Amino acid sequence: MSSITLPPLHAWANYALPARANPMAAAKNLMVFHPSPAIHHHHYHHHHTPSTPTTPKLSLSFILDDSRPLTPPAAARARESRLPPTQHPVTKERKRKRKMTPAEKRAARSCCVEGCTNYTIDRGLCFRHGGGKSCSMPGCTASAKHRGLCWKHG
Questions:
Q1: Which segments constitute the WRKY19-like zinc finger domain (predicted)?
Q2: What does each C-alpha distance from 72 to 77, 80, 110 come to in angstroms?
């Protein structure tokens, strides 16, 4: 039976957890560090934040960073609440449409070719007059039936 040799401990240093603020020591401006080989030899001060502007957002140190609040400070929220509510310019001018009658609904869905009473499929046209997707084979003008191809090509 063979034994497995593990890599030296410093090989695991890249996977070590970064320094995190201790909420119990926040009043004293102290930091508590996770014991790991990656940060034993560094000198950290209380103003160090584990994620810097260059820290990738998918890294664990950025995701687990508790130094920045998730919500804006109370003063900013209070300032936002004092601003007058603004409406989007489009919604301000939009008026409610009246409901269409069944006859109007049917007329709106019919083919735009004169005399055709079929329902539209695409671009205001019925299937007979070119509504729907055309065949994806170069040079073919037939309409697509299955997987973007007409009956002839697909």
A1: 132-154
A2: 7, 10, 53
* pLDDT tens by residue, 115-124: 888 888 878 8
Report whether 51 contacts 62 (CB < 8 A): yes
Q: Tell me which residue has tokens 């584990």.
A: 50
In this prediction the pTM is: 0.29
Contact 119, 107 (CB under 8 A): no
Which residue reads 């055309």 in tokens?
Answer: 134
H/E segment holding residue 91 = helix 89-93
d(CA 145, CA 137) in angstroms, rounded, equals 12
Residue 116, token pair as written in the block: 């055709």
Indicate the DSSP class of residue 11.
G
Straight-line distance from the first to the last Cα atom of the chain, in angstroms, rounded to the nearest whole number: 59
